[in-house]
Amino acid sequence: MNGKFPHDFLWGGAVAANQVEGAYLTDGKGLSTSDLQPQGIFGAITPRHEGDSGIKDLAIDFYHRYPQDIALFAEMGFKCLRTSIAWARIFPQGDEETPNEAGLAFYDRLFDEMAKYGIQPLITLSHYEMPYGLTQKYGGWGSRATIGFFERYARTVFERYKHKVKHWLTFNEINMSLHAPFTGVGLPADSDKSAIYQAIHHQLVASARAVKACHELVPGGKIGNMLLGGILYPLSCKPEDLLETQRQNRDWLFFGDVQARGAYPAYMQRFFRENGIQVAITEEDRQALRETIDFISFSYYMSGCVTADPEQYETARGNILDMVPNPHLASSEWGWQIDPIGLRYLLNVLYDRYQKPLFIVENGLGAKDRVEADGSINDDYRVNYLNDHLVQVAEAIDDGVEVMGYTSWGPIDLVSASKAEMSKRYGFIYVDRDDAGNGSLERRRKKSFYWYRDVIHSNGNSLKQKG
Prior knowledge:
Elements lengths: L9 E5 L2 H4 L41 H15 L3 E5 L2 H4 L10 H16 L3 E7 L5 H7 L6 H17 L5 E5 L9 H5 L7 H25 L4 E7 L3 E3 L4 H23 L4 H9 L8 H7 L5 E5 L4 E3 L9 E3 L2 E3 L16 H15 L3 E5 L17 H20 L3 E7 L19 E3 L11 E3 L1 H11 L10
Parallel strand pairs: 1-2, 1-12, 2-3, 3-4, 4-5, 5-7, 6-8, 7-11, 11-12
Antiparallel strand pairs: 9-10, 13-14
Helix pairs in contact: 2-4, 6-8, 8-11, 12-13
């Protein structure tokens, strides 16, 4: 690749607390909204009763096995590991005056283990979960009170870890609240648009307050947002398709606009007006929103198409969104379309729009891996997918886009967010556990483990251009 990646590029992987840690009530942790979704984001919200269990309760037992897993990440040469803090470990009900020391101590141990190997933490404050107590007592992000509870939590962890963690994110895939309100903002799935956008507004204000707190408390700290990068193309060159594509891309770019520019864009004012959406925004809120993020982070798994006549086409679901399939692209086993060039396009779109550093914090291929008789796992399909995407990242860097790093999603197999499956595997490291929760939890290196080790060691020069 002729040295296109900068020398300080942050190579690594990304996980989430609720998908790897397990230990769901250990050391004083409270119930989170994720604990009420044992079948994943698309499953029913299920009350917890004594004696019941779900696959995420143990997950891959990262809570107890993290030293082994961090050592494996270090063997690959990770410069960075993205994970999240489980908010309910720190404030079990969400509204306590004082934090849970046992929860804070766990992340001290985790960050110290990473520091042993020179792995920088990239920490998400809220990754698809919040204390369930806040949804019970206050209605989740529907309540303005939750802004203050989140700010207390953010300030607590910034103060505690200010010398250990320099890179932070506020909310994971913040735009997904439009599609899964309970997961994103703690609201019922049938909430109306006004309620959802009011909750989103509270979350945007809380994000800005966290940015301010990070700048005040963390010496040299940088804090970004995190978008679900659902880039869409027009299905045809009809002007109506182009205009509808712009509208649908703005549905998610709106979040970046507020977080990076510090105010609501004019097109959202029209959207609210024409759809009868009422959002209470105070002058204090407007002032808070002016505190903007330092960088843009995002996930990218697939692109999709848009048409002004969608009833004529079947849609395909991928990473929460429903999209019209692109007839020019192949798909994964789960129907997610594979579009490496779309990543280069998205990087350019975001950099043109914001002129802020970009960080690709999720990208990967979910697949059913097979353990061979000799114990090997030959996941060439994953190598090919990641190689092709990283080649396009290099091209975007050559285009002039400032890219901070790349953390592949699920460098170790974990419980999938969408349906709480283990069989949908992303990792370079295989974990012996199945969808029913059976297995030894043994870790095993896949073929892609050695491939990614070489990519990091060569700073991307081992990647193979196609054609």
